[in-house]
Amino acid sequence: MSETTQAAKPAPVLGRLAENSQIVLLGLLVLLCIGISLGSPQFYSVENIIAILRQCSLVLIVAAGMTMLLIAAEVDLSVGASLAFSGVVAMDVTNKTGSVALGVLAGILFGGAVGLFNGLVVTRLRVNSLIATIATMMILQGSVFLYSREAVQNKHQQVAFTEISTGYVGPVPIPVIIAAVVFVAAFIVLRYTTIGRYIYAVGANQKAARLSGIRPERLKLLVFVVTGLLTGLAGLILTSLMNAGQPTAGRGFELTVIAAVILGGTSLLGGRGTLIGTLLGVLVLKVIDNGIIILRWDQNLQMVVPGVVIIVATYLDLIRSRANAR
Question: Does the predicted model carry a pTM greater than 0.90?
Answer without folding.
Answer: yes
